[in-house]
Amino acid sequence: MRRWNAEREALAQRIAAGSAFARGKIVAAADAGALIEAVIRPFDRVCLEGDNQKQADLLARALAGVDPAKIHDLHMVQSGVVLPEHLDVFETGVAKKLDYAYSGPQAGRIAKMLFGGKIELGAVHTYLELFARYFIDLTPNVALVAAVSADRDGNLYTGPNTEDTPTVIEATAFKSGVVIAQVNEVVDKLPRVDIPGDRVHFVVEAKKPFYVEPLFTRDPGAITETQILTAMLAIKGIYEPYGVKRLNHGIGFNTAAIELLLPTFAERLGLKGKICTRFALNPHPTLIPAIESGWVEQIHCFGSEVGMDDYIEARPDIFFTGPDGSLRSNRAFCQTAGLYACDMFIGATLQIDLAGNSSTVTASRIAGFGGAPNMGSDARGRRHPAEPWLKAGREADPDGLPALRRGRKLVVQIGETFGEGNAPTFVEKLDALALAEKLGLELAPVMIYADDVTHIVTEEGIANLLLCRDKDEREQAVRGVAGYTEVGRGRDAKMVQRLRERGIIKRPEDLGINVLDVDRSLLAARSIKDLARWSGGLYRPPSKFRNW
Amino acid sequence: MRRWNAEREALAQRIAAGSAFARGKIVAAADAGALIEAVIRPFDRVCLEGDNQKQADLLARALAGVDPAKIHDLHMVQSGVVLPEHLDVFETGVAKKLDYAYSGPQAGRIAKMLFGGKIELGAVHTYLELFARYFIDLTPNVALVAAVSADRDGNLYTGPNTEDTPTVIEATAFKSGVVIAQVNEVVDKLPRVDIPGDRVHFVVEAKKPFYVEPLFTRDPGAITETQILTAMLAIKGIYEPYGVKRLNHGIGFNTAAIELLLPTFAERLGLKGKICTRFALNPHPTLIPAIESGWVEQIHCFGSEVGMDDYIEARPDIFFTGPDGSLRSNRAFCQTAGLYACDMFIGATLQIDLAGNSSTVTASRIAGFGGAPNMGSDARGRRHPAEPWLKAGREADPDGLPALRRGRKLVVQIGETFGEGNAPTFVEKLDALALAEKLGLELAPVMIYADDVTHIVTEEGIANLLLCRDKDEREQAVRGVAGYTEVGRGRDAKMVQRLRERGIIKRPEDLGINVLDVDRSLLAARSIKDLARWSGGLYRPPSKFRNW
């Protein structure tokens, strides 16, 4: 006779074992390690919550401290590899296999550990893809999550940083997995219920806030004139002609510059209400001037941003907020919105090849993908029209039967021809390919594939890849905006000139932009202090961004 | 001075107006209409919950009964147009504009009303796309949802049919919208909490269960030998060579036949454990024999299926279930799983054209899309490898640089060459194109586009479109499996023969299948009663499927 409730029985045993360290569901911070040792079993799939923002840091430390003789060979299935502890568990043998999405701050160390064979790599995913697998073949046996507070029944309040928590818990709790939440405090009554208590088995009282990285804060003071130029090109050459209203902005100074040019440069172009009204976006501080100037109608967020909570709470017409007044973020829904309800994704990258493939992986750093592959891909399941999407579709396929012609998501890569450390952004061959060879990966870690990219913007101009009709045109369009990089210098000048005549390449002067007019005074805010001022004092920048 | 809390103030007013008909949050069924008239305002965006399964039927009737002088010009943003009341509101002027995803049972009437100009059509979406827009530009002002029970704080228990409810409520409640839930009963303590009460403003006690359509029940007694043949072809010619483990099956007798051949035909081929282990799928009764035979490891569900609840509850190792023991379904996550974590989508359609575009829209019926466009599209954001996906990618692009070659989702259309009423499945031009012209749509309602379809299976054989190298080969591959339809008879017999020699077309004999062996005795269950027997009496078919 086959048993059909092995998982349920295991759950009961795990809860019984963990209960030795709990009063009801509540566990003292000092007992977190003992709790984890009691609940987790070797070879378990474990989701340790952490993405590019919030971190279940106390539980990460506790897991890193367990006895590898008792707990070993775990398969970690988690959004972010961000804290040192996320990799320590692989050094000690507590964990063995890894499936993840983002590893920005640990990009160097994770690369070394992969080369050294310390980690058995499953795959590097985009967030929504990893969430999808939680329901099919990477369902966690144990989830270690973070919330602001809990009541004694285990109901959780995540506050503004809801992020991945509901998704992780849904996949775990409803498949007989154990959910352990660290909370800043246990209270009698929660400001709102983000997670019902019957999905939460243990609550560890951390007595201090979980760690959150202010990843989406860009100091306007650090925005260069070159970045302002690329932002002006994007607004005049892409946002305006396509009429992009629903969009996502990646992290970076180029898109921060776009946000700060909306109430100035874009407003003078008469674009208010015609572009940038609805976002799938974290609460970027650099968007405050545009919001305050009445540009923005609605924003749905993946997570919150450090220092933005009071501002968001005072702007409920713009943001999604709960009955308690504070932000309700949700990474799974915001990624879905970015995929299916946005007409543009614009972001930066580290390397672009001659076809337009791009990657943030370099020879020594594996940063992961985050949300870019999802939002920076053409959603082929999309069935609703919108003018930017239809126009892009017409450009890509001018001769197609109109009724059978699909639209296209605008996927824009924006950056300077030379990036950090003067490394060229344009390369003949992505470092990602060498890495794939070295690690024996079946797929090179390409962030956005060439066939999804529609435009490349640099200080030299815009290349519209939708209008390229063959591989050669495409290569010359890429070379034609690659400036003084080797790739740029390798251009066929005559062909680039013809591409320019056909409007495939646009220079600043083709768009009526005088490079001499580019000036930091165009930015609606020129410092973090300016942003705080725009917000009426509601934005409270983290101390590392304050110099006053 | 701009106000930033207009929505919050409107919410307070709406709740105050509705509270006249409530005790606390509880409203009597007889007062549902008065409550709705008090809460909804003209031109509101309203989500009336209903998909292809569960329906907020009491609230649908109440909305259809409001005074159009008071409530008019609503913009309905909802998954399903299924009940007559969903269209009645457009006849009376209560509603004006419609954005939706599925309209199977109302396909004829909705077509007539669109032709008659009674409905202003936004777009026909796939479910996940509509959910995405709830967070960007179709956020409901009011959501009318359905649950099994509520407590006096408004906490909701959705039971096995959770489906769209968490998504609809999240988008509405956290953007200052009003949430009204009909429940079968108000209780003191819920079996589990599916929706926290602070997101629910009013609870209408219906005193009887909401309507659920048993849409995924297929009587094995109605499966034809032709359908069994297509199922055998699919298993032998696609499931086996690609090794498809993670997948979704559409609704229909062909895929039901596949499910019923797993413990018989497929088991004899030695495929147990090698195919069909993990599904994004509703609890199809026809999957019971495969589950009982140990074929299936895990299933995540969009919704439940009438009569399957006790069976699911007794099989928690397979299904996602709550602490109360019953199924936890979730359409948004299951669609996400179907998009990103499955290697195959296989389903039926009404019409396929020469390129491979398909649609369920005919001249007089607009059935909507449901989940097919999402799950039947290549997820270009996907970054994790799996053998079926990699093999499909190699077939599509044999000369590509391996490290830069993406995999491909297997998207299979299966059906007989002649469908219901002897209408040919294969056509020169989809009716959807004529419809788009007639209604002035910017996009024809194509369900799955040619460039996403990888295989077509009919009783004549399998066409592998991945292996076609140009438009002509593709057309002849389609014609080559189109049987005696006009499209099939129009084939270039020599070219079809060459395609067969190259393995692009496979006939039953090419796969070692003798058409004379095809017999209903191959089905693991040949009646609904057989399914009930396989389940040990746990599956309780709805009365319309019982003849004993």
Automatic annotation (TrEMBL), chains A, B:
GO molecular function: transferase activity
Family annotation (InterPro entries): MadA (IPR005777), NagB/RpiA_transferase-like (IPR037171)
SUPFAM superfamilies according to UniProt: NagB/RpiA/CoA transferase-like (SSF100950)
Protein name per its UniProtKB record: Malonate decarboxylase, alpha subunit
Species assigned in the record: Methylocella silvestris (strain DSM 15510 / CIP 108128 / LMG 27833 / NCIMB 13906 / BL2)
